[in-house]
Amino acid sequence: MLDVVPSTAHRLLAALCYDGFAVQDRERRYRAGPELAPHEEMSYPPNQLRGAIWPSIETLNKTLDETIQVWVLQGPRVRYIDGIESTQSLSVRTAMWDLVPAYCSAGGKALLATLSNAELESIHAGGLPPWRSSRITSLQSLKRHLVTVRQNGYALNLEEAAQGIAGIAACVKDPGGRAVAGISVAIPSIRFNRKKIPDYVEALRDAVATAEADLGKPARGAAAHAS
């Protein structure tokens, strides 16, 4: 045991929760977080997930000619695992970030929207990870925002992760209904047009349907398209 006073122990545990190394359950007991065992919480190994999703994001990229990114949830953050860049001269790079707060990205919001309020509270026990351009400032405002995401069936990010970039995303689920990845379309804000949202959503839903159908097939190698 650590020889520290309770107030210090609470600060240490809050820091561990903030970084994803611990979570607090409904009884306010602490347990190991997703950073200590991230792959155990994933329904599929990363390479299998990449292989299954690749055909759908390849088609989505060709359909929209925008950058496509694939994200997985790790505690209160999302990790980039794959993507394809747009061929347009002005485009978003596929791997601008490796690990960002889920609540300020389209892919992260799509994934968070599949969680219950209790699960949201658990993974954000240490508070929302700070991100200077985010418009969501509290867990309560996040919960309210996710109600809209669930109703719409997709998530939007309007310069919340980075200035000059908009995103729209939907969630891929496994055959059991568990969310396994978020697919996002990243668009330079100067080119983003709200009137085209229905077109983005339709293409995204087609990609999600293809990815979900492919998840039950034999694993494909991802080495050929590793980013």
UniProtKB/TrEMBL annotation:
Q: Which Pfam families match?
A: IclR_C
Chain ranges of the IclR-ED domain: 28-217
Please, which domain of life does this record's source organism belong to? Answer: Bacteria
Name of the protein in question:
Transcriptional regulator
Keywords of this entry: Transcription, Transcription regulation
Q: Which organism is it from?
A: Arthrobacter mangrovi
User: Which PANTHER family does the annotation name?
Assistant: HELIX-TURN-HELIX TRANSCRIPTIONAL REGULATOR, ICLR FAMILY (PTHR30136), HTH-TYPE TRANSCRIPTIONAL REGULATOR RV1719 (PTHR30136:SF35)
Phylogenetic placement of the source organism: Bacteria, Bacillati, Actinomycetota, Actinomycetes, Micrococcales
